[in-house]
Amino acid sequence: MKLVTKLGIATAGVALTMALTETKPAQALTWNWSFNGGAEAGTFDTNGTFANTSGSFNFTINASTVAITSSTVAPSLVGKTFTETQPTQGFLWNGTAPTQFYRNNGALTNGSRFSYNPSSLLLAFTVSSSSFNGRIYNPSTFNPNFNFSNGTLTPIGATPVPFDFSTNLGLGIFAAYTLGNLALRKAKAARKAAKV
């Protein structure tokens, strides 16, 4: 079998394998939240894109990404991993601000709550009187119980989406074509040199 054919088949095979095994995770949008001028702050990821923030949208919060990056009232929670106690949680967005946080797939509309164990502390987000509010508290004893109001919630970045099937297949075909042409030129040059 000619070198050109072997290279073309091998490259096309690799491209097809890449295209068929490519997984495309759900795109994530990262949000910054803060209260008290940034003294209490953190991030979380949701579904959706920047385009979705320009109008009404129902964002679902990925609980494993909920993080506190700064806290004067609960510094022990900075960098800890949170879980959701009543999945699925999220918020409604009107194009400029959240209008409602929910949990339990929207059945409970009085806020989203994320738990940190072993401390049993909850981080909660709510909206009341058009204000984005937060809270860090112990639901059993309400000690501690810190309430925050007039916060900010801002989308800051989206997770890049990897190449999809058609892109990988197209790149594989281009690579096969390019390698085939290089091999063909090399073979012609070798034949020409052998004639001399």
Commentary on this structure:
This is PEP-CTERM sorting domain-containing protein. This protein has 196 residues and is α+β, with helices and mostly antiparallel strands. It has 2 helices and 11 strands; from the N terminus they run αβββββββββββα. The protein has helices spanning 3-21, 165-195; strands at residues 29-35, 40-46, 57-70, 83-84, 90-93, 98-102, 112-116, 121-128, 131-137, 145-148, 152-158. The strands form 2 sheets. It has a 6-stranded antiparallel β-sheet with strand order 6-5-3-2-1-11, with no helix packed on it. A 5-stranded antiparallel β-sheet has the order 4-7-8-9-10, with no helix packed on it. β9 and β10 (145-148) form a beta hairpin. The protein is elongated and about 95 Å long. The model has no long low-confidence stretch (mean pLDDT 82).
What is the C-alpha radius of gyration, as a whole number of Å?
26 Å
Query: Biggest sheet: strands side by side, in what order?
Result: 6-5-3-2-1-11
Shape: elongated
Strand content: 35-45%
**Average pLDDT score:** 82
Structural class by secondary-structure content: alpha+beta
Q: What low-confidence regions span 5 or more consecutive residues with pLDDT below 50?
A: none
Give the total of beta strands: 11
Q: Describe the main β-sheet briefly.
A: 6 strands, antiparallel
Q: N-to-C terminal Cα separation, in Å?
A: 25 Å
Please report the number of helical segments.
Answer: 2
Helix content: 25-40%
- Written as H for each helix and E for each strand, in order along the chain, the element string is HEEEEEEEEEEEH
